[in-house]
Amino acid sequence: MPRSVNHVASRARRKKILKRVKGQFGARKNVWTVAKNAYEKGLTYAFADRRRKKREFRSLWIQRINAAARLEGMSYSQLMGALHKAGIEINRKTLAYLAVNNAEAFKAIVAKVK
């Protein structure tokens, strides 16, 4: 009996991955084995970068808070220590937003903890 191969399913599998690597450079977009490797590596980076994104945003918020705090005559660590001591629970994301977009509110918070 002849060997039966499901060409429809295997072709669909290839088409799916080749469609997803469409914007890649060189052989990564049209050579099956290279495209498959590029796609799998991309998924690995995507997984890791979802975690890295959180770190980078926290770092950005800290830099923004530090810059705004220094305009008020305090360092970041002094401000965060004073906030903790005063019992003001405000997260870094919100504090950074206030520092950039609402300077008066940030100044009021700093004045309260000084």
What does this entry look like structurally?
The chain is mainly α. Helix content is 75%, strand content 0%. The chain is built from five helices and no strands. Helix 1 runs parallel beside helix 2 and helix 4 packs across helix 5 (103-113). It is rod-shaped, with a radius of gyration of 26 Å.
Break the fold down into its secondary structure elements and pairings.
Blueprint: H1 7-20, H2 32-71, H3 76-86, H4 92-101, H5 103-113
Helix pairs in contact: 1-2, 2-4, 4-5
Q: What characteristics describe this protein?
A:
114 residues; mainly alpha; 5 helices; rod-shaped
Concise synopsis of the structure shown:
The protein is an all-alpha fold and 114 residues long. It contains 5 helices and no strands.
